[in-house]
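Before relying on records like the one below, remember that each one covers exactly one chain. Contacts with other chains, cofactors or solvent are not represented anywhere in the record.
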Amino acid sequence: MALEMRKYCENCSQPLQDQGVAFLFALMNVHSVQTVLKKWSRSAQIVGENL
């Protein structure tokens, strides 16, 4: 993930500010994915306990 972002920044000819915004969006996406995974694993635990 971080390596991909670094490649993107090297290949991208946009100003540094745009790269920072893109990086922030990537971080938010990673955070939301982690949140979804936590919720999913929690609900899987609950289902497992009820079986």
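The chain is about 90% helix and 0% strand.
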